[in-house]
Amino acid sequence: MTSKILRRLFHSVLVLLGLTVVVFGLLDLGGDPAAQLSSPDATPQEIEAFRHEHGFDRPLPVQYLEWLGRAIQGDLGFSYRQGVPALSVVLDSMPATLLLIVASLAVAFLVAIPAGILAAVRRGSRFDRLVISGAVFTQSLPTFWLGIVMILFFAVNLRWLPESGGGGPEYLVMPAVALGAFQVGTYARLLRSSMVEVLDSEFVRTARAKGLSRHRVVLVHALRNAAIPVITVIGLQIGELYGGTVITETVFGWPGANRQAVQSITGHDMPVVLAYILVVGTLVLLTNLVVEALYGVLDVRTRDKAAA
Question: What are the transmembrane regions (predicted)?
Fold first, then answer.
């Protein structure tokens, strides 16, 4: 198990390095950073001095290797726009993004897990058909469209919630629901299908034959095994959410890291963009490790294989 984790860490480091190389190249394709970062009334001499000061006059591979050497020492540079450490810019806004992700997952779990279990237990019923139809409907709703509709209805017309921004819990309600709507459909359908398959398995019939209560059979024996494919999808979607909340953050004016990253990209603030890539990549790595650990808890076969 230890060797597997070490291999995973090694591969993840290579992926992070590859991402930084790609980002470096893409940002260079965006034009002359010195001209874009200088003031509109800057003279050619001032632009050239700015280019030399920040090393933009050096070959791109040299710029990258110099940045990588500083990054290994924990120095990710300073934001060109804000004049503060690039890492602090990302870390200051990342808690808002993580809060939004956790809130959206909470919304999805509270709705999808009971709905998926009940639909599987009552398969073929009206409730089962309603869950399947509702799951397809929520998956088909664009997040930006749902967010705009919610703003118009709950903020503009009813004035129950603030339109945008960050602050108290009332600012989190609409972004969390809009972001969690798609996940509700995904998790409910997947859990329902997995539960149906597990409920027809031999070990569930054996548990029923032993006289175990229906609740224990469903919630302990069946749910534990049915949750394995769901956890796989959750792990993948959390990785996507780290960088995929940008639309929700933009629509609701949520002060998250993805919104900050987009502003840094348009502003050619390379140190902040690279710091964002490293932070998000690390979060994805940690999420994958947690998912693999959960496999060992839920699936005895995975744990035995790792031990062997």
Answer: 9-27, 98-121, 141-160, 172-191, 217-238, 273-298
